[in-house]
Specification:
Layout lengths: L9 H5 L20 H14 L3 H32 L5 H12 L5 H16 L8 H33 L3 E2 L2 E2 L1 H5 L1 H19 L6 H22 L8 H27 L4 H29 L10 H4 L5 H9 L2 H10 L7 H13 L2 H19 L7 H12 L6
Antiparallel strand pairs: 1-2
Helix pairs in contact: 2-16, 3-5, 3-6, 3-17, 5-6, 5-10, 5-11, 5-17, 6-8, 6-9, 6-10, 8-9, 9-10, 10-11, 11-16, 13-16, 16-17
Length: about 400
């Protein structure tokens, strides 16, 4: 049994992260001159240079996470497969294809680690009657499976909107069955997610998941409607991301705390939700960076943001700091339509000549720092450490 440390910085955190309801959380401004932000740029460069130490650290963290959540993940995977069974062989085949695309299972992992961190924070939870612990564990499996299905559904829809051919080096559902079938399959996965959440003992997980999924859809819809709108501010863009990506990560952590049960975990649910929100923002900002400076090793179709004329942080930064002449040229190049190779090359040259790359990495790094700091209210334990390491590695994925 790991030794439980005393809570640190409780007063500060209880008046900030823990005292802020997730419904009112939004992306706030970040200090891009902080050491934490600059560290991401330097550590990312080390990772790109092939740092064996970085790779070894990731493998150790992955091993720790699997040892903590492995059994739960097996049950979550089994529950997802059973939930997605269909009388139609074609529908079942497409669901199996989605499962074959794999993925990090980040959101179920966040839920399980959050529940475990709350159990360390409140030792009485470890001494509950066996029947109650089994019921909580069952709720956690339903929650984890529902979270992953919502995420999977959103990715199926994303690939249709982005006209992506591959995901993780495999053909997308749209490539296999066409865009119309992909949209309907995404809808099918959404319904299965809500069905699983409704199986929990209380209605709270279903309500929270529905609210997060609604925020996700609103964020996605707003981003689609903002295509070609180069006048939106960086602050508005960050608020959009807090719904599109942050909401589901936040509710994953919050529902993990809920599944832990007891009274004390509710003290920690808000700081965990804050962690999830900031983690989601860091993850999405790094995705923004990858779309311009990543490589095919990511397993994603790159360049889709430019092809869809989506205002993302690299271009918004260039528009914010560029000269009037630069702005005019960039907006001319960004006009909707098919971009030629020469146009894409010129846009990339303009980005490279600015601080857009460094700025985007620093912004992602600052949200990582905020995420890690938000967990200071929790006592030190291995689940908390794993959550913090997940945040740190979110901005050092293969590029």
């Amino acid at each position: 049994m790991l030794q439980r440390a005393q809570c640190v910085d409780t007063a500060r955190d209880s008046s900030s992260a823990s005292g802020t309801d997730i419904d009112r959380l939004s992306a706030t401004s970040v200090n891009l001159n902080s050491d934490a932000s600059r560290d991401v740029v330097s550590s990312h460069q080390a990772d790109r240079d092939g740092s064996d130490h970085q790779c070894g650290s990731k493998l150790r963290v992955e091993h720790s996470i699997r040892s903590l959540v492995g059994n739960h993940l097996l049950e979550i995977e089994r529950t997802m497969r059973l939930a997605c069974r269909s009388r139609s062989a074609e529908v079942s085949h497409l669901c199996e294809h989605v499962e074959s695309l794999g993925g990090k299972r980040l959101r179920p992992i966040l839920a399980v680690l959050s529940a475990q961190a709350c159990e360390y924070a409140d030792p009485s939870l470890l001494h509950r009657p066996q029947s109650e612990r089994l019921a909580s564990s069952r709720d956690l499996v339903y929650i984890g499976a529902a979270l992953e299905l919502v995420h999977a559904a959103s990715l199926v829809h994303d690939d249709v909107m982005d006209q992506a051919d591959t995901r993780r080096h495999r053909p997308t559902v749209g490539t296999v069955a066409g865009g119309h079938a992909a949209i309907l399959l995404g809808d099918f996965l959404f319904t299965k997610a809500y069905d699983l959440a409704a199986r929990c003992r209380l209605r709270y997980p279903a309500r929270r998941l529905a609210k997060a999924a609604s925020a996700l859809c609103e964020g996605e819809l707003e981003q689609q409607l903002s295509a070609g709108n180069w006048s939106i501010s960086i602050q508005h863009y960050m608020e959009l991301l807090s719904r599109k990506t942050g909401a589901l990560c936040a509710v994953s952590c919050r529902l993990g705390a809920f599944a832990a049960g007891g009274s004390s975990p509710h003290v920690y649910s808000r700081c965990l939700a804050r962690f999830g929100l900031d983690l989601g923002l860091a993850f999405q900002l790094f995705d923004d960076w990858l779309d311009y400076w990543g490589s095919d090793r990511t397993g994603k179709t790159l360049g889709t943001d430019l092809a869809q004329c989506k205002p993302t942080l690299p271009l918004l930064r260039l528009l914010a700091v560029g000269s009037p002449a630069t702005r005019r040229e960039l907006i001319r190049l960004l006009q909707p339509g098919q971009h030629s190779d020469e146009q894409r090359l010129r846009i990339r040259e303009m980005l490279d000549a600015s601080d857009a790359s460094e700025y985007t990495l620093q912004a992602a790094g600052q949200y990582v720092h905020k995420a890690v700091e938000s967990l200071n209210v929790l006592p030190d334990c291995e689940p908390k450490s794993c959550l913090q390491q997940i945040a740190r590695f979110s901005v050092s994925r293969i590029s």
